[in-house]
Each structure stands twice: as C-alpha cells, then as structure tokens.
Amino acid sequence: MTKTMRAVEITEAGGPEVLKPVERDIPKPGHGDVLLKIAYAGVNRPDALQRAGLYAPPPEASDLPGLEASGEVVALGEGVSGISVGDKVCALLPGGGYAEYATTPAAHCLPVPEGMGMKEAACLPETFFTVWSNVFQRGGLKAGEKFLVHGGSSGIGTTAIQLASHFGARVFTTAGNADKCRICEELGAERAINYREEDFVEVIRAEGGADLILDMVGGSYLPKNVKSLANDGRLVQIAFLQGPKVELNFAQVMMRRLTITGSTLRPQSDLAKARIADALREQVWPLLSAGKIAPVMDSEYALDQAADAHARMEGSTHIGKIVLKVGG
C-alpha cells in the first residue's frame, strides 16, 4: 500500500466548483476502527451543506466530504472484532468518503447484501440509517398507519417508500413531476402527489390526515405538515431545504396532541449509530439480500467529477442515488 491517496477536498465554502482533487496521506485506523479501500462513495445532501459551509464535520472527523461508502477492509485498529481484513462491506462514515481510503468504526460497517454490487451497496448506509432511525425508531411507524414522506424521488424518499410499504403502512409522498410520481407509486406509494399541481394538505386531509410525516423541506412546509397530521400524529424533521425558521401555531399542536421531533445522524454517538446498524442487520439486510427492496440508482461519476455530481444533486432532477466511482 502506498502512503498517499487520491481524494476530493473542499477548498473553501461555496458551490460545486470548490471541490478539487488532491493527494492526501492515507489515514490510520484508531481503536475500534477499520480502514476501507473504497470502491464507491455515496453523494448526499449533507455533503453539499458541508461544502457550502453550513454543516461542519465533528472535531474528530475527516474534513473530506463523504458519509457512506462501499469497499474492502484492508486494516484493523486495536480492539476490533467480528470483522476481518478482506471483508467486503458498506459503511456509515464520519466523513472522508471522497477518497481512495477512509476510516470508520467497525461497528458502523455492514456486509454487502447477497447478490448486490458494490455500487448499489455504497448507497445504503446514510439513507437506510437515516430512514430506519427516524421513521421506525423515532417516528414509531406501525402497520396500517398513514405515512407521508416528502421528496419521494430522493434517496431518502425512495428508501422510505419501500420500507414503509413493506412493513404495512399506507404510503403517500410528494414529488415534482409526473415521472417522479410514477416511480414513487411503482415503489409502493399508494398516492404520489405532484406538489406543483396539487395541494398535498388537501389530499392528505381527505384521507383523514397522516399519522406520521417525514420531512426534509422545512420552511413553509412546517405549518402545512401540522395541518396534514391526524390527531396524535407525529412529524419528524430531518433537514431544512427551505430553512429552519417559520411562524407556527402551537395551539394546533396542543389541541390535537401532535408530536414534532427530529434528528440529524452525523452528530450522534458511535454507540447510537452502532445500535442502528444492529437493527438494520436484523430487520432490513435480509430484505436487501432477498431482493425485496433495493436502492434506486440515478447516476455514477468518477471521483474527480465530484463537482458535477453535486451540481446534478442540487439541480433536483435526479431520481434516487448518485455515486462516485473511486476504486477499480
């Protein structure tokens, strides 16, 4: 193994053009960590927020973007058990995925599902950790409940639709055009609402209101989500594409016994993420290996085309996941 690697760094806060290829030293795994030789890295909204200077990495994390990847374990830190050099895994990363090598806690690695390629496996961790922890653990979604997920054609949306549908919920979603709506319904949504042509509040209220809403839009959607909830409904907020500040009438929250909560994945403790990984291994990975659910793939870019990948993601024309091809 050489001592340096190809990587893409954020040269300054700004648009996609600030992502530049560089040479970096290969990181060394610390206690409980593994070193991965990366095959593919997923591209996600938090990467773009970090690039724009709006989402600083934790102090101990790599400054390189990239929160998920697939690859081969090539070195083990002290205290690692249950995983071996040579294992093919996909992993949730604290950062550093836009590179040929990255370190991550061994407990945040999951095996590549049977029959799945490395490209598809790279798209699992960030999205599935986020959806499982927010929809099922925090949101408490149960079979038979009405579930609304915004941004149904995104990586989060396509994953949430499939998982919620598989576990027996009635799934509703929003998307920006007819093609995106069609794909959402093919994935298991009972009704996909074109938000450019219909008022999702009216559609959901006609169904009696949503028991659970997963939202990453924020802004003007917050009061609309409150109106869309059934009595005792729950809203889980995971991002704010329209901004985090809005005027909200909390009398409705009190009178209809609503719950508003939310989370971000990256700042959570290693232990919390390991527990999510354990739940996924038990509840979801068998479904992936059986082909009952699968990541929806949009496009692939070379590592040094990371800026183009970000431009596509922020253009919001993509459907599903975008990946960077890193290894051979």
TrEMBL record:
Pfam families the UniProt entry points to: ADH_N, ADH_zinc_N
GO molecular function: NADPH binding; oxidoreductase activity, acting on NAD(P)H
Alphabetical list of InterPro entries matching this protein: ADH-like_C, ADH-like_N, ER, GroES-like_sf, NAD(P)-bd_dom_sf, Quinone_OxRdtase_PIG3
Keywords: NADP, Oxidoreductase
Annotated CDD domains: p53_inducible_oxidoreductase
The keyword Oxidoreductase is annotated on this UniProt entry: yes
Protein name, entry field: Putative NAD(P)H quinone oxidoreductase, PIG3 family
